[in-house]
């Protein structure tokens, strides 16, 4: 992507996060390959955000086990397949120095990234101030060329006090994050989180009642789905395979 075109795409993506009504949060489907990206773009979504677990599954890996080179290559294929902005979930950065991480994201054509504050299969939380310092380095390297969504993993695999997630989020915003994402935080905490944290807030639906409009009413700015869309599609393929095995031709 040409630098001018890239900056236009980043500005478009950043603008999508601001000036929204509570009833109209930004909905970002998560493509796992080029074909799914085209389907979401053709449906009229203004931007996309890849899920690392969904991409991992499409490549034959479990979540967190995708080699960095394969993840960046997958993101590049997705970004090339569509004419709308694509943000990339690059987990906790694959141990890359901020300068290299930013360069790899830009080379892949991503306009933004998800960066987690936990590591390893047990999602051990990083020291929040150390993580904020690292995010500040990423921001310094990227300048305005990337939209940084800082994922807050306080609720991932554990019961947490929302105050901890809020403390982390405020540090990350101060470090330059454009948006914060308290993944798996119960929606009931969203109003408090929204009131105490500046800037856009990313939310994940946890139940059928968690519609985009409802999460927006509670304080979410944008909605993503993790690997759920890829898993729904995989389930549909499994059902089709069963019908084929039984001798039925799918319609």
From TrEMBL:
rRNA-binding keyword on record: no
TM ranges: none
Gene Ontology molecular function, alphabetical: transferase activity
Any matching Pfam family: PEP_mutase
InterPro entries registered for this protein in UniProt: ICL/PEPM, Pyrv/PenolPyrv_kinase-like_dom, Pyrv_kinase-like_dom_sf
Superkingdom to which the source organism belongs: Bacteria
PANTHER family listed in its UniProt record: CARBOXYPHOSPHONOENOLPYRUVATE PHOSPHONOMUTASE-LIKE PROTEIN (AFU_ORTHOLOGUE AFUA_5G07230), PHOSPHOENOLPYRUVATE CARBOXYLASE
Protein name per its UniProtKB record: Transferase
Organism from which the protein derives: Streptomyces clavuligerus
Phylogenetic lineage: Bacteria, Bacillati, Actinomycetota, Actinomycetes, Kitasatosporales
